[in-house]
TrEMBL record:
Residues 245-342 form the DUF695 domain. This is DUF695 domain-containing protein. InterPro entries: DUF695. It holds the Pfam family DUF695. Residues 101-123 are annotated as: Disordered. It comes from the Bacteria.
Amino acid sequence: MGIFRSRPRGTGRPVPGDPDDFWAWWSERGRALVTTAVGGEQPGQAFDALTTAVHALHPGLAWEVGPGELSAYVLALSPEGDPELRAPARRWLLAAPEPDPTWSFTDHRPPDPTPGSGTLSIDGGPELDLGDVLVSARSSGSRFDVAVFHPAFTGLDETVRERVTYLVLDGALGENDVELWLGTIEATDVRPPDGFGLAALRAAVDDRRSAHVDADGRPTWTLLRGETADGPLIASAQTPLHPLTAAQLTRYAAVTLPYRERSPDGFPTGASLDSLREIEDGLTEALGTSGAVVAHQSCAGTRLVHLYLDDATKALEVVRRTASTWGEGRARVESSLDPGWDRVRHLRS
């Protein structure tokens, strides 16, 4: 079976639609229509209806139907790299039915089954053999900085080279892994002496993911240290610290907690450390799936707890109510919309 796609429609910033409306359409009519279409019967009518249903969620979302790993077919919604569209795509996925032998679902463009095979053509240009792609990679914290080469790049302008590079990487790794595990990305027309193919890149990224994600797919935690004008700082942050780990959590909340018992370096000790652990555990329990503690940092007698919340819930009220129980000084809560998780970028490893 081939891969069928629909691109997003250019718009302003409409209010996202209700995922339940999409899944009601899918159950009543859409599933049968699209299943028949991938078999080659009246694909135009079915895919037009699918496009209408997806754009009712948000006209900036794109969809793709192709062979699935868990099922015969997979329906993927893609935010096309727009951080503000990750949340509606993730809420759509969270509301999806369980996968079955025919259909499974994902909120990002999945990788090709065999990276490095096949060809790629841009806007009717020459076909590029993906087996000729070479990648060089340098470890940078939890990510790889990569340079991508193809012999045809010498005849392409920089804009086209970059576009090809991102399409090649998306195909080899899938959209999510490109964002989670790659840092700087360069398109080069200079053959790398240490280059390797796309299949080897996927294997390296798979190894990197397994080192930072537990058996249940949850991020691990990394300890960080630094120096500030107020003294030494110690922090702990989930890795990867990226919105794709919980794309429906778009509201940032910072909880500032002064503590009494501290070491000469200003870090919490004794009963204060126990109390900080208790309130963070209380936040996690009270929020459930509507929010998450993603990092905390301590310096000079103050802990700053970083959270992300689902703005479609009352999670912020839960945070404020829980913070008000802090007994070692006045707790402060600040919040802002931050779908790109930019407020914690300094803690990414």
